[in-house]
TrEMBL record:
PANTHER family: DIHYDROLIPOAMIDE ACETYLTRANSFERASE COMPONENT OF PYRUVATE DEHYDROGENASE COMPLEX (PTHR43178), LIPOAMIDE ACYLTRANSFERASE COMPONENT OF BRANCHED-CHAIN ALPHA-KETO ACID DEHYDROGENASE COMPLEX, MITOCHONDRIAL (PTHR43178:SF5). Residues 176-193 have a biased composition (Basic and acidic residues). This is Dihydrolipoamide acetyltransferase component of pyruvate dehydrogenase complex. Its cofactor is (R)-lipoate. Its EC number is 2.3.1.-. Its main location: mitochondrion. It comes from Leptosia nina. Residues 171-203 are annotated as: Disordered. PROSITE patterns: BIOTINYL_LIPOYL (PS50968), LIPOYL (PS00189), PSBD (PS51826). The lineage of its organism: Eukaryota, Metazoa, Ecdysozoa, Arthropoda, Hexapoda. Residues 93-168 form the Lipoyl-binding domain. It is found in: Mitochondrion matrix.
Amino acid sequence: MTYIVHYLEQARHVDTDRFKMAEPHRRIKSALIMRNDNSLCQKVCSTSRVLRQWNRTNSGIIILDKKKKKNALRTFEELKSKQIHTTRSAHQAIAFKLSDIGEGIREVVIKEWFVKVGDKVQQFDNICEVQSDKASVTITSRYDGVVTRLYHEVDQTALVGQPLVDIELEGTTAEDAPKSKEPATKETNETQKEQQINSSSKKEKILTTPAVRRIASQFRVNLSEIPATGRNGRLLKEDLLSYLNISSDKSNEVPEFANIPAPTAQVAPKPEVILEDKIVPVTGFTKAMVKSMTEAMKIPHFGFCDEYNVTKLVEMRETLKKVALSRGVKLTYMPIIVKATSLTLLNHPVLNSSLDSSCENIIFKASHNIGVAMDTPNGLVVPVIKNVQNKTVLEVAKELNLIQEKGAKGQLGLSDLTGGTFTISNIGNVGGTYTKPIILPPQVSIGALGKIQVLPRFDSEGKVVPTHILTVSWSADHRVIDGVTIARFSNELKSYLENPYNLLLDV
């Protein structure tokens, strides 16, 4: 019988006495690796392709003889470089894994898929939107190819480092890409073919970045109408700015019409009636709240409450609101309060500090990154306005409008929710007077604003007059801040808000 030696890594240990070659003119019928070790014994079926490969790489048949063992070994070493092998298909499906998105996040919840099986994707195309316990993040593709499998359904949990989708790369060999853990099933392939046919008739997707889509949405521009100059038809930010005829600085300004809500029919949602007990896993922002509040309750809280007469603030805001609206900015009380808080923190920097992990050092923060607690469809979040000490009231208002819009759409990212040094919560939107806010570690203080109410108060002449009253509640870390400090801070902020024109002297 004729045998072909197929070299493996252990082939140097093969005993050549076991191999005998028949006459040169006989046809090769099969190839065996003759070893007692079962892990190395495998049969390679003889095909016409194998025969052609053999004829191309071998000039003749070698007869192994016991008397010529030395020559046979040398000839065998030459055959090692001419082994018969096969390659996999050029279209290789790889597992696109969920990479580490930072901040110690280990799992996320799939909120929305932007692709389906059979869709073609390119680099930087949106794959899905995921929600961690801190923020919502859009995952983009790192490859060009066709989606062959989705590993999760909407609202399922995905782990960092585990596959999200399988993408079949075009024009890439198996050696160029990692191997997928689970190949696509027969049903998946059939679904892929059907969806490829359906997707071919759909409108071509616009290739661009989330930042460009945000600007286009802000200015209400149809991206398909803009000529794209980027690679592979990608729409660049410069293309959009050129189309709008604005500079990059003005791309963050909200146009006046963007603040006018579209008329919609207000239909009160029906409350969900629970007929039996059900178990719901703690995920997303709720999980973040459980974790942060558990840590917060280790802090010894000190509370302080007061009333501010903000009648002059109400009058000033009514005047400035029209001016701000003419510049395309919606001005509420919160931007003024945030700026006044920043000015007050300059004189009381300990409220803008934090304790280190060993509670041995106080870290005084140079930036006033003030978080504003906000109720969103995904739950309570605290987006942060960075470097308030360097911004005007109008700039704070613009940024606040932007994060409120992103929060309503569930589009707040990690950069929007991290880095806070001081927090202001506002329960006045819902209703209420006083509350006891919980400090967000590693911060050392937090404030909560109640509803501005018109209440009777005595003026300087002893007459009862209607007065706009704002109630405030402060909580401080009593390990760092004492009662006198928080009282002085509150009184100075009270002076700014009761006499808002004083802000002009210190801004």
